[in-house]
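Hi L.,

As promised, Signal peptidase I:
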Amino acid sequence: MGEISVHRLVTGSVLLFVVALLIGAMLGQPILLGFVETGSMEPTLQTGDGFVAIPAVVAGPVEEGDVVVFRAEEIQGGGLTTHRIVESTDSGYVTRGDANPFTDQDGEEPPVRNDQIVAVVWQPGGEVLAIPGVGAVVTGTQDVLQLVQRKLAAALGTRSLLGVQGLAYLFFGFTVLVYLVDTWRSDNRKRDSRTHSRDSGTSTRLLVGIFAAAIVLSATAVMIGPAGPQEFGVVSAETDSPGTRVIEQGTTESTTYPVGNGGVVPVVTYLEPGSDAIDVEPRELAVPRRSVANATVTLHAPPETGYYRYFVIEHRYLALLPQSHIRTLYEIHPWAPIVVIDTVLGVPFYLVGVRLVGTGRIRNRSRDVERPVSARLHRWVRRLY
């Protein structure tokens, strides 16, 4: 195993961070880095500033003063929001943007629950570490990618290269191309290098693997976090009451079951009744980005009075594969689509990352002459060092 220079590592790491940001933006969950799109956190975070996002499962319990990224229900129509916790109550957390005169709960946003928090903003020394310009980099890169998708789709006469699904196809194709070209170059490269392997240093494969694992874990959290059993508590009573919590014994009532998607990647959701006393239609929903799709749940009150608990089992998948493929995998096993989608995300990222930063170990100096991934980016990195 060879060694790589710090310059090549930094160059590849910058590209990996950009890709991680893009994937995080698509998934609707920050991966290592996030950024704010509004000025609600000024002066702590200006519009477009980035921040280091620690996954909630790693960060542990949150407390007053922490800045968190949570899935809002009402703020700007729902979706990810980055605000500060100002109070903890029995019902949940009270949050507020540093620039806002009122809390989110003074409006229509319910108290924030722990299961809504997806990340905690890193605050070394008690202050948020702001990274200027991250939002501009991500949105600019997204615009370029969309332009490339439109050009390729027009040239090839197919719409399958458009949207998030098309981006997944292009990413996978780019991965295969990079891997084949680099393998060909490696096979034809002369073997007279005088580079000696060393056991010291940090393996770049490990670092890239950490990035890939973060992406896979975030994608998995997006799919399984909002899913699972959803409870409906019903009282079978002698007389009916408004709503679906109290139903006249032996009768049925229906209610709307909303399935929300706060990310920019469409999702496919499957709903299963947990018992014969509850039904749901339709059982397959395609939910576009940042929108809500509704199903109808029908509840049956038993002839005997009393309190009954019914469940709808929800399975959610990122629409990075055609819906028909997800359906086929789901019919095999509910976890099968998650495994395939995680593979589509993680494996290409790892292979490209290894080709970008090399396969050796990190060292501070290198006498090897290496062709940079991008000459312009390499010159920019050299100015920093």
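Helices lie at 6-27, 56-59, 134-156, 163-188, 204-224, 323-332, 336-357, 375-384.

Thanks again for sending the construct details.

K.
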